[in-house]
Task: inverse folding
């Protein structure tokens, strides 16, 4: 691997002091995933990263970014000593951005940030080398890490920017300095920290404060806060709109699920577009149009980019669909699993339920004669004082009428349990761990199963429990039949 940071370059970027020379090929904040040659960054979070510096060096780290000489280390170790590790990491990110030649694209929004980032990765990879965070690195340390890892010769960089509280997005956007930035949508999320949807919209629109001169703002239409987004984008050289509203630059005409794909009909500047997103979910259609707008701003042909969307699949926890084979011989002994367990708010929950409602179970293959649509739902977090009403409102959505059984976990989901029709009401537990312990008994061959909830609800434990029902070797035995 090529050298990402020499000790001299890193010291110049951070105004730090290197105890020994080093040449780092990567950046790491976790000794569990560190690779030889990485620069270990000793951040303070739940634990103090300084406690793991010795282990990182012993694991092959090229050096460590620290604010003091950690226990078990000395001046003989390759340490870059700075007054504050997080400040230094952000300086490293700014320096990484400044020296890069890449066209930088940034994505934010209440729903679909990571999926849009991964769509962009798939689309842009046909046009050059693409750098993007492997995980959802979108906060005050994730963004600078992504920028610090940016290779100087990358053609494109895709930066995801998130927030939990007011005032977080603009500094990160100014650090990333994107040539184009997109807002996926605005929906009720993080309402514990904001008074209303308008406050969320203003915070998301602050991403445009970081645009480079001549930059492009990509915004959704048809929202009650679309005018706020447009006002926030007023400083951009170009504003491109996408959505269902007539007059949108990328106008979504229709989207429908066809098997394991979503067929999208749209118009760009009055010219028709027809393409597939190779995963079910009409909510992916709107994000795809925003992605095409960003790709065009980066110099790509949007028609070619639309075809390249066929190479994209959602990452784990973001709506990924897979078939779980429970028998190595009989492929009928299987069920379909939608893993959407990474994040949740009312908008994304409804979108996931619509995907489940549009899916077709298989009858006559399990213990029950009829295949079922089953939802395992965990709490939606950070919704503020109206959270119970927002959970209960899911029962009234039309998609819920096509769901056969709903199993629930978490104190907030008790509000949904109380209003669900008795025929749909499955099992309820205070914790996702308790629901996960029961999960294997609640599914059957032929079922289509959705698992959805906020990351903090730990409903991903249910996904792990259901995946354990796969028989060893069954995936290989049935490869190509999914």
Result:
């Amino acid at each position: 691997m090529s050298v990402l940071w020499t000790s001299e370059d890193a010291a110049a970027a951070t105004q730090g002091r290197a105890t020994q020379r080093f040449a780092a090929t990567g950046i790491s904040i976790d000794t569990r995933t560190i690779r030889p040659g990485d620069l270990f960054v000793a951040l303070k979070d739940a634990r103090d990263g300084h406690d793991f510096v010795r282990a990182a060096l012993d694991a092959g780290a090229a050096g460590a970014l620290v604010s003091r000489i950690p226990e078990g280390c000395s001046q003989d170790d390759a340490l870059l000593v700075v007054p504050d590790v997080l400040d230094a990491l952000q300086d490293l990110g700014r320096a990484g951005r400044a020296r890069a030649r890449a066209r930088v694209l940034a994505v934010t929004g209440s729903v679909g940030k990571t999926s849009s980032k991964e769509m962009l990765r798939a689309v842009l990879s046909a046009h050059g080398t693409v750098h993007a965070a492997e995980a959802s690195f979108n906060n005050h340390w994730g963004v600078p890490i992504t920028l610090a890892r940016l290779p100087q010769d990358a053609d494109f960089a895709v930066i995801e920017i998130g927030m939990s509280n007011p005032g977080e997005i603009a500094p990160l956007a100014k650090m990333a300095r994107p040539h184009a930035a997109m807002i996926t949508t605005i929906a009720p999320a993080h309402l514990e920290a904001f008074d209303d949807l308008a406050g969320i919209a203003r915070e998301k629109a602050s991403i445009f404060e970081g645009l480079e001169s001549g930059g492009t703002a990509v915004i959704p239409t048809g929202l009650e806060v679309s005018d706020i987004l447009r006002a926030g984008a007023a400083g951009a050289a170009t504003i491109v709109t996408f959505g269902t509203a007539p007059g949108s630059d990328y106008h979504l005409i229709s989207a429908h699920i066809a098997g394991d794909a979503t067929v999208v009909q749209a118009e760009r500047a009055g010219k028709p577009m027809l393409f597939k997103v190779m995963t079910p979910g009409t909510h992916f259609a709107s994000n795809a149009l925003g992605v095409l707008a960003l790709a065009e701003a980066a110099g790509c042909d949007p028609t070619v980019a639309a075809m390249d969307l066929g190479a994209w699949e959602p990452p784990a926890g973001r709506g990924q669909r897979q078939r779980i084979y429970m028998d190595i011989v009989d492929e009928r002994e299987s069920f379909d699993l939608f893993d959407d367990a990474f994040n949740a708010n009312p908008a994304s929950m409804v979108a996931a339920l619509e995907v489940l409602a549009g899916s077709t179970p298989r009858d006559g293959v399990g213990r029950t004669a009829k295949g079922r649509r089953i939802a395992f739902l965990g709490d939606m977090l950070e919704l503020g004082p109206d959270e119970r009403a927002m959970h209960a409102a899911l029962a009234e959505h039309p998609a819920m009428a096509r769901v056969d059984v709903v199993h629930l976990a978490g104190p907030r989901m008790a509000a949904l349990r109380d209003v669900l029709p008795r025929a749909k009401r499955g099992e309820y537990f205070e914790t996702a761990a308790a629901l996960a312990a029961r999960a294997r008994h609640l599914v059957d061959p032929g079922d289509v199963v959705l698992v959805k909830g906020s990351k903090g609800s730990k409903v991903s434990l249910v996904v792990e429990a259901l995946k354990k029902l796969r028989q060893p070797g069954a995936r290989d035995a049935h490869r190509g039949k999914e």
About this structure: The first helix runs from residue 7 to 14. The chain has a mean pLDDT of 91. Residues 5-85 form a domain with the Udp-n-acetylmuramoylalanyl-d-glutamate--2,6- Diaminopimelate Ligase; Chain: A, domain 1 fold (CATH 3.40.1390.10).
